[in-house]
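Handoff note, outgoing to incoming analyst
You'll be picking up this chain. Sequence as last confirmed:
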Amino acid sequence: MVKAGQLNVTGDRDLACEVDLLGHVYQELRNPKARKAHGEIYTPAPIATAMARLTLDGAKPGQSICDPCAGTGGLLRAAAQQLRADGVDPHTIHWYAADIDPVVVSGLAVNMHLWDLGPHVVVGCANVLAEPDWETRARAEQRAAVEQHNARVLVARFLALTACSQPLPNMPGEPDSGQKTPRNPHPKPASTGLRGILSRYGETAGTPRPVLQQPRNQPRERAQRRLPDG
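Most recent structure output, in case you need it:
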């Protein structure tokens, strides 16, 4: 895949919308017997394009498109391309997609971003025959994931502000002048990333203890045992 340059397709938004790369990768890695046992049948891209052209004639913004057995989303990709050809922005459409295989659903979620389907996307992992209202649970899981992400971002921002505003402690033996001054006259710019936050916390935690090592070229002195006098 890397030698063939197929991963470069995902870097170009226009090219990414033309192919279901993750679907091809999954089909190559998946055991054919396992696909047959789970009833996994992928629709070829030309057939998906023809189906989208026949069924989406006259689609308008605000409508919904649902694929309960989406796989990695080949039919949804064809639908989005047909909407763009008809002058309809996919961001104005509500997309619903589900599959029973969690690995396939992971690729499906990635494809939703690569194909730029917009903010109205609900992806779920469910057996739609046993759980007809799967989209309700999928929406709740989506909201919980967004809230958890926002909470982590808020904590990271708080830690970044705390690390940037926290004064450095004095070195051992350094007089306390009442004003904390940085030890380094040329401090490095503060990093806002998690790695930068951890490194700043490491700098303010104190100085490491020096480690004394025996030089390799210098022979070790052997201790001589003193005999008692007399």
